[in-house]
Specification:
The complex is a heterotrimer of chains A (about 325), B (about 220) and C (about 675). Helices cover about 70% and strands about 0% of the residues of chain A. Chain A has one domain. In chain A, helix 3 packs parallel to helix 9. Chain A is an all-alpha fold. The longest helix of chain B is centred in the C-terminal third of the chain and has 29 residues. Chain B contains seven helices and no strands. Chain B has one domain. Chain B starts with 6 loop residues before the first helix and ends in a 16-residue tail after the last helix. Chain C has about 675 residues and is mainly alpha-helical. Chain C is built from 26 helices and three strands. In chain C, strands 1-2 form a two-stranded antiparallel ribbon. The chains are: A mainly alpha (about 325), B mainly alpha (about 220), C mainly alpha (about 675). Chains in contact: A-B, A-C, B-C. Chains A and C meet through helix 2, strand 1, helix 3, helix 4 and helix 5 of A and helix 16, helix 17, helix 21, strand 3 and helix 23 of C.
């Protein structure tokens, strides 16, 4: 029972911190580009404002349009609940393994893409079409990276994987190196960051995610934005906790949890800074360059898989 | 198992995987100057691996090989190629393969094929580097794939050189290096080859006004 | 009543319904009052009979004094047959609820209702009999009954020339397939000394002959199931049949082919070889990704669904291929897992594909539209059909917590167990197949976003669609039944897998001990540490998460204000949006069409034609993309050419000279004499 409570608290913390991570990335980006950055609490204020605003909905919107933000936020929340954040071995982690986690994201994406087509504008359809295309191409790369991970740890349960990697100690594994790189590229594509999509743009012809949510406003938009922030944080936590799990709490004492929290904050700060550097250095790609980007991700993941098979076991 | 090996042996394996990655990067890279940079990195990685193998096996002449590799593969040849493309004025050209995704996937299948072929060989050996035989073979075949899939002469030269990197790597990995004389001979050959390629570039361009090797079809006697 | 009698009644009831239907031309009410209810009862009986055999794990062989004098009909209800019997029965039940409303459309049409009802009865009876047949003779008889009666159903609307062509193609390929199956049985019977399955099972096959039999089986059953490149009849035949028949063909008849394949290779041939599995895995992976890519390009709803069936057959065979690899390399437990994954996907696909075809039928009946590019906004006009269709779309896109996800998850888990294999190459190749499966799943999601988005969402594109209204109550009930089954089999996978234990036990003597070891809540195929999925908790969690967000919303919104207004959609300030500005199905799939362009030869031409209109101020621009099936070019045309060349060579002996013919006779006689000495 205690464990379940802890898992619940962890999830709440996760959801509460997601906007902060987005704000941190933005802040580092502003520093790099010599701009003054908004306050770290700005995303919270934005969300609060959106929740209190009135909702303007298109005449042609169907009930699915209203349901979608809740489903997206719900699936993302569920995904956040199964990701080991500060501690491993929480009971929620057994509900879903990493493939189910990908399934939650697919579910959210499915509904988001449907909502994009619901109102019947050209932009929505454009965004949906692009989003589903990119997701389809990202999926094999993601799965091969996950496979590599699962073969290294002989499990797809996230907490087991982390336990295994902790137990092995510091091992230089080419497979994990490439899986990490592949997963990072997939993460960039899936969370709609530069160079695949630009979360800050509303330029009609280049937007993907923003095109689908163009018709949303008020609390619905707030839910979708929040879910996007949670998704970004999930990818961040996955990367830091799987590939650099050291410091995560393996038992539920207060000190271990405190250390775990501090360490994961530090790791996320570094990762966020890296993401910001990447976004400042790169320019957004043309849509039809994205397949090449994802093929690169697939190649990296495949090299990881092959080097595991050839170099590490054989 | 990997986790029981000492750290520098793990590093050898990781470097081997990185060498393979540079081969893929060469396959995918379409612009000339970054391609030469990747090639230089590959040379450097091969050299570092050689150094580590020297440390691992205690063979001191491998240090010389490593030094040679750094000088030749990581510094001189890339520098020469770089100078060439600048002087030919093609440093901003795009020389990509026609279907990069297909080529990369064929590359992945080649690696599996190499593994299949090299498995019986590597079972004979007991050293740490036995598993890298498949990788070095893959580097050779990926170099050949690059030769086949690219139309421009510069890319083909880089492919050829990377193929040679693979051979060198195979020698280091499988047998802890060839006799010094052979190695010096090969190094010299590569050097001469690089220079001759340079001369040929100018001649090819002068005679057919392009570095597109498909244009060489015109030299064929048969009418089409 | 004894099983023997029950089975006989189950098989005869559909025939009876067919006979009754013969009178339906004069009294259409018979269809509603008797024909479909009889089918429904037969379906329920099949569910009961099959479910009983499945859950009890019993096998009963029954001999009926019919058929050849020296070979009576052997029928056998074992757990495998029971599984498929129940599956067919369930879908038939749903269709019999849907049917009465649907066939009203044909009451005043030019075609005869009697024909439709008669052959439907034969078709259902044939399918039910295939799965219980226990000797080659009755199997082939039932198989032909199924094939021939479905030919008449495909060609039902025969006034359309395209339908006649589709029917002919179907008949041709079905018969070629049946011929190879017959040859396969012949090989087994030759070694086993008898046509009953029991004799074939005991046949001592040499590895070479076993491989030949297997190849014949893959060809014959694969042709019926729709493995690429033998699928060509499928996207032609399935769409032209009446929709409830399409549901039966796609949802159930393909499963009968899967049944035949499992029976033939796992049961009758026995000792599977791992190399067969590799071959099957490669074919299946190509089938899966090919099917979904072609489905994405279609804008005819039923044709799209047919191509998507090809994809799902690919997924099922990926599971079977993995299973064979693991059985063949001495990992029976993992082989069983693969088999369970394949069976689960068979179940899932039967449910959601029938559901989708019934939905497509409802849309077709109400809007008279099959072209996605002309639909739109149907969700507001047909809310219930829209809801059930959405369930089908979610299931087929393999999204949790519905059933399509469970089966794909199981297939992934099977593929993930490669580290236990000794061959390094297999360890490297199987993950590639899994990557193809992942690509397939994601493309399927894209495909069904396209379908749902263009058909049910947005605005209506034509007047007929704008005027359509909700389907009748019976039609909705049939869909609701299937939708509910999709959800339940997604949420309670452990119960279904427990039931399947008897199938695998009777087939290979293996069960999965760990799959449900931690109780019905947890699905743990290998062990709890390796992978676990709790579908019920995911479902509950999903509901809780929705509730949580509603609470957040309630807390954060300011009190006492109405905060929703309706307005026009954003039009960039240019004026009203029209339905024609929406993304169509064709435009939706454009990026994918461009990325995978080499798969559709000729499509580039179509686009270029569209661009070079007469002058820059063309009054009307037409944009049409035709994407023909590439297998016609790469597979069928060479085969046909080869056939032509061979026949031309053979025809040379037809000289027309009488003395030559006499000479042939003479030579033949000499040869025969020489042979018998």
């Amino acid at each position: 029972m205690n464990d379940w409570l802890l898992a619940l608290l962890g999830t709440l913390l996760f959801v509460a911190l997601a906007p902060l991570f987005a704000a941190w990335v933005k802040r580092v980006k502003c520093w790099l580009q010599n701009r003054s950055s908004p306050a770290l609490l700005q995303p919270y204020r934005d969300l609060r404002r959106l929740f209190s605003k009135q909702v303007v909905m298109a005449e042609t919107a169907s009930p699915l349009f209203v349901m979608t933000p809740y489903i997206i936020a719900g699936a993302t929340l569920l995904a956040a609940a199964v990701v080991p954040f500060i501690a491993v071995n929480l009971p929620t982690a057994a509900i879903a393994d990493v493939i189910v986690l990908a399934g939650f994201f697919s579910l959210a994406r499915f509904f988001l893409a449907l909502a994009g087509m619901d109102v019947g504008t050209a932009f929505g359809g454009m965004g949906s079409s692009r989003e589903m295309t990119i997701a389809a191409l990202a999926e094999p790369a993601m799965l091969v990276a996950v496979f590599t991970l699962a073969m290294v740890a002989s499990s797809t349960n996230l907490s087991t994987v982390i336990d295994q990697i902790l137990a092995q100690g510091l091992v230089l594994r080419p497979s994990l190196l490439f899986a990490l790189l592949g997963l990072m590229l997939v993460g960039i594509a899936e969370t709609g960051r530069i160079p695949v999509d630009n979360p800050a743009t509303h330029l009609e012809l280049t937007m993907i995610h923003e095109a689908m949510v163009l018709e949303y406003s008020g609390r619905h938009l707030a839910l979708i934005e929040w879910a996007a922030q949670i998704k970004l944080l999930i990818y961040g936590v996955l990367i830091v906790n799987i590939f650099f799990p050291w410091g995560i709490a393996t038992h539920n004492s207060v000190t271990a949890l405190a250390i775990g929290a501090a360490v994961v904050f530090f790791k996320l700060m570094v990762l966020g800074a890296l993401l910001a550097v990447g976004e400042s250095v790169l320019a957004k790609m043309r849509l039809f360059r994205v397949p090449a980007f994802l093929v690169l991700a697939l190649t990296l993941a495949l090299i990881g898989l092959l080097s595991h098979i050839i170099l590490e076991v054989g | 198992m990997l986790e029981q090996l000492p750290l520098y042996q793990q590093a050898i394996l990781t470097l081997a995987a990185l060498v393979m990655f540079t081969s893929f990067a060469l396959l995918a890279q379409s612009r000339v100057v970054p391609m030469i940079h990747v090639f230089a990195w590959q040379g450097l990685l091969v050299a570092i691996t050689t150094g580590l193998v020297a440390f691992d096996s205690g063979k001191h002449d491998l240090y010389i090989s490593a030094l040679l590799a750094v000088l030749l593969k990581a510094l001189f040849v890339p520098w020469l190629l770089h100078r060439l493309v600048t002087r030919l004025g093609i440093d901003r050209d795009e020389h990509g393969a026609e279907h990069p995704a297909t080529v990369l996937l064929i590359g992945a299948l080649l690696v599996i094929f190499c593994y299949y072929v090299a498995e019986p060989i590597s079972e004979l050996s007991a050293s740490v580097t036995r598993n890298t035989i498949a990788i070095s073979m893959a580097v050779v075949l990926l170099g050949m794939l690059m030769l086949v899939s690219r139309g421009k002469a510069v890319a083909q030269v880089v492919g050829f050189m990377s193929l040679e990197n693979g051979l060198f790597f195979a020698a280091v990995a499988a047998t802890h290096g060839m006799p010094m004389v052979v190695e010096l001979g090969i190094a010299f050959d590569v050097l001469v080859a690089a220079v001759i390629f340079g001369v040929f570039f100018f001649h090819i361009r002068d005679s057919i006004e392009s570095l597109d090797v498909d244009q060489l079809n015109r030299l064929s006697e048969s009418d089409e | 009543m004894s099983t023997s009698l029950l089975l006989a009644v189950t098989l005869v009831l559909p025939l009876l319904s067919g006979v009754v239907a013969s009178a339906a031309d004069h009294r259409p009410a018979l269809m509603r009052g008797l024909v479909f209810p009889l089918l429904g009862v037969a379906g329920l009986m099949a569910v009961g009979l099959g479910g009983h055999a499945l859950l009890q794990g019993t096998s009963e062989t029954l001999v009926y004094p019919l058929g050849l004098p020296w070979l009576h009909w052997h029928l056998r209800v074992d757990p495998l047959a029971g599984f498929f019997l129940a599956l067919i029965g369930f879908v038939v039940t749903a269709v019999s609820l849907f049917g009465p409303g649907y066939v009203r459309e044909f009451e005043h049409g030019k075609q005869s209702l009697a024909v439709l009802g008669f052959f439907t009865g034969l078709f259902v009876s044939g399918m039910l009999m295939v799965v219980v047949a226990a000797d080659a003779f009755s199997f082939m008889l039932a198989w032909e009954l199924m094939s021939l009666s479905s030919y008449f159903l495909v060609a039902y609307q025969h006034r359309n020339a395209a339908n006649r062509r589709a029917g002919f193609l179907y008949l041709l390929m079905a018969e070629v397939g049946a011929l190879t199956i017959l040859l396969g049985f012949g090989v087994l019977a030759g070694f086993g000394d008898g046509f009953s399955f029991a004799a074939m099972r005991a046949a001592p096959l040499t590895p070479a002959w076993a491989s030949i039999a297997f190849a014949l089986g893959v060809f014959g059953f694969g042709m019926k199931a729709g493995l690429v490149p033998l699928h060509a009849w499928l996207p032609e035949a399935h769409p032209v049949a009446p929709s409830h028949i399409s549901a039966l063909m796609s949802g159930v008849m393909l499963k009968v082919a899967v049944y035949g394949f499992i029976r033939f290779s796992f049961d009758l041939i026995g000792n599977v070889h791992w190399a067969w599995g590799v071959a099957l895995l490669i074919i299946a992976s190509i089938t899966a990704v090919f099917g979904v890519l072609y489905a994405l390009m279609q804008h005819d709803l039923k044709r799209l669904l047919a191509y998507s069936s090809v994809e799902n057959i690919g997924i099922i065979f990926i599971g079977l291929g993995l299973s064979m690899i693991f059985y063949g390399t001495g990992f029976p437990l993992l082989g069983t897992l693969g088999l369970v994954a394949a069976l689960y996907h068979t179940l899932s696909h039967a449910l959601f594909k029938s559901l989708l075809f019934l939905g497509a039928g409802a849309v077709l009946q109400r809007s008279h539209e099959r072209d996605l590019d002309r639909m739109g906004g149907l969700l507001r006009r047909m809310p219930w059909t829209g809801l059930f269709f959405l369930v089908g779309c979610i299931s087929i896109s393999a999204l949790p917590p519905f059933n399509g996800f469970v089966s794909e998850w199981l297939t992934f888990q099977t593929a993930l167990q490669v580290p236990s294999l000794e061959s390094g190459v297999l360890r490297a190749v199987i993950p590639l197949a899994a990557a193809v499966l992942a690509l397939t799943g994601a493309l399927a999601a894209a495909c069904f976003v396209k379908v749902y988005g263009t058909a049910f969402l947005g605005q209506a594109r034509t007047r007929r669609v704008r005027r359509s209204n909700e389907a009748g109550r019976g039609m909705l009930l049939g869909q609701a039944l299937l939708a509910l089954a999709c959800l339940l089999s997604g949420i309670f996978p452990t119960l279904a897998i427990d039931a399947m234990a008897n199938v695998t036990r009777s087939l290979t003597g293996q069960v999965l001990p760990a799959a449900t070891a931690k109780g019905w809540l947890w699905l743990t195929p290998i062990s709890a540490d390796t992978a676990s999925y709790s579908a019920p908790l995911v479902f509950v969690g999903m509901l809780l998460a929705l509730l949580a967000w509603a609470v957040v919303n309630f807390i954060l919104r300011p009190a006492g204000r109405v905060v929703t207004v309706r307005s026009d959609a954003w039009d960039c300030g240019f004026g009203p949006l029209s339905a024609r500005m929406q993304y169509t199905a064709t435009s939706f799939s454009m990026p994918i069409r461009r990325i995978f362009a080499p798969l559709w030869p000729g499509q580039a031409d179509a686009e270029r034609d569209a661009r070079t209109g007469p002058g820059s101020e063309a009054r009307q621009t037409r944009y049409q993309v035709r994407t023909g099936d590439v297998t016609w070019k790469w597979f069928y045309r060479p085969v046909v050419q080869l056939l032509h060349a061979t026949t031309r060579r053979v025809s040379r002996i037809q000289t027309g000279n009488l003395r030559h013919y006499l000479g042939y006779t003479f030579v033949t006689l000499l040869l025969l004499l020489w042979l018998i000495t």
